[in-house]
Design a protein that fits this description.
67% helix, three-stranded antiparallel beta sheet, 156 residues, mainly alpha, Arc Repressor Mutant, subunit A
């Protein structure tokens, strides 16, 4: 729904603002992690998933958790194996699948990159202060809940 004068409604304005913020933060994080650690934000996310689990994950589990295609994960996995950050073997529970896990080098790179990632986010958001960050987190949580409650048909 358009408002008078060609301005977008409040929901569209919020969406555009969120997209802009996401793009800016994503770009800054991606450039820094690539420059300092040789990993893109996508690779960082795979390492983070594996680190959180603390054990092996199948490539299919990784793709489901990251909400990307199996083909996307396959390419990331191949590049992370080539860099020595993860290893892959046939899954013990399903011989048709591969399980991946962090190597010692991957764990070390992830921890260092995570520290830098968190440092950058503190720089980006730090000026808001703890009270305002709590408010922002609350509003975003409400937005996430509202989206989860929206009828599925609205997005089909």
């Amino acid at each position: 729904m358009q408002t008078t004068g060609g301005e977008r409604n409040a929901e569209s304005q919020v969406w555009q603002l969120m997209l802009g913020i996401h793009g800016d933060i994503f770009g800054r994080l991606n450039r820094t992690l690539t420059r300092e650690f040789g990993i893109t934000l996508a690779k960082f996310d795979v390492l983070a998933q594996l680190y959180r689990v603390g054990d092996r994950l199948t490539q299919s589990d990784l793709s489901r958790q990251r909400k990307v295609t199996d083909g996307n994960i396959t390419g990331l996995v191949h590049r992370l194996i080539a860099a020595g950050l993860i290893s892959r073997e046939v899954s013990a529970s399903d011989r048709r699948a591969y399980a991946v896990q962090l190597t010692d080098q991957g764990r070390a790179v992830y921890r260092a990159a995570r520290d830098r990632h968190d440092e950058l986010l503190a720089t980006f958001f730090g000026s808001l202060g703890p009270t305002r960050l709590t408010e922002v987190r609350s509003v975003l949580g409400q937005l996430s809940h509202a989206l989860a409650q929206a009828p599925a048909r609205a997005s089909e």
